[in-house]
Amino acid sequence: MSTREWIVGIHAVSELLRRHPEDVHELLLQQERSDQRIEEVRALAQELGLVFKVVPRAELEQRISGDGKKTGKARSDKTRPGKSGPVHQGVAALCQWRDTVKDEAFLNAMLDKLPHPPLLLILDEVTDPHNLGACLRTADAAGVDAVIVPRDNSATLNLTVRKVASGAAEKVNLVAVTNLSRTMAALQQRGIWITGTAGESTQSLYDADLTGPRALVMGSEGKGLRRLTREHCDFLISIPMAGAVSSLNVSVATGVCLFEAIRQRKPKATGR
């Protein structure tokens, strides 16, 4: 099976060109688009010395849907309601993916060198690639130092994840670990406090201390935190819910929690 895949979308392709242009085997731009965003991709490719093709929309969509003969079967991405085919925004790059997922050795080396108190995000068996992509995008926006996932029973870093992450998959340190509970214990030995999210917790997110060395743990889409994961948390918190809905999507909850942590960790303004 070919290890080449299409990455589509302006943000994702642009970030790929900036960070790993050597991985791009083919770059397609839609003939019918000539707006500023497409021109920025074209200019970036020219600056990097990459050859690109301008093709009609029908040909672009045929290639990325897997009908192109050069690439073998390619993965398709999400579609807009009422429309077929990937949401490509007029840009597609055929890539030979390198393995960008990090391991425990990388995590330890990174933590040894961090010049500030770490902020980590732990995802406990998040299996939906759309949720993983959204969590990576939010983690990048919040300045998270690393996102930690279990090596098994977790969404892999595939085309859908990269597209939803809008370039964040190329920037955020995604660390896959063999034993999540053991990793959490090792983080605690480093003095990192671990805060898990659980709907039944009586402590509100907004009353919790999220400053200092901190790891936030988010549960899976259906079951929440596993028992062992929960037992390795120092604290459990919940997001106050005012309406009829009892819980939030994991990627939405991740955003709420991370940006509350960012608010708390922001240096306080001092008077003169």
Strand proportion, as a percent range, falls in: 15-25%
Poorly predicted runs of 5 or more residues: 67-86
How helical, in percent, are the residues?
A: 25-40%
Might you state the CATH topology name of the largest domain? Alpha/beta knot
Based on the structure given, which CATH architecture of the largest domain is correct?
A: 3-Layer(aba) Sandwich
Helix-strand makeup class: alpha/beta
Succession of helices and strands: EHEHEHEHEHEHEHEEHEH
Report on the biggest sheet.
Answer: 6 strands, parallel
Count of distinct strands: 10
Number of domains: 2
- CATH homologous superfamily classification of the largest domain: SPOUT methyltransferase, trefoil knot domain
Q: Note the gap between the termini.
A: 65 Å
* Mean residue pLDDT: 86
Question: What do these coordinates show?
Answer:
The protein has 272 residues and is α/β, with parallel strands linked by helices. It has two domains: 4-96, 60s Ribosomal Protein L30, Chain: A (2-Layer Sandwich), CATH 3.30.1330; 104-265, SPOUT methyltransferase, trefoil knot domain (Alpha/beta knot, 3-Layer(aba) Sandwich), CATH 3.40.1280. The chain is 35% helix and 18% strand. It has nine helices and ten strands. It has helices at 10-19, 36-48, 57-67, 104-113, 129-142, 159-165, 180-189, 227-231, 250-265; strands at residues 4-8, 24-30, 53-55, 91-96, 119-123, 146-150, 174-177, 193-197, 214-218, 235-237. Strand 2, helix 2 and strand 3 form a beta-alpha-beta unit. Residues 67-86 have low confidence and may be disordered.
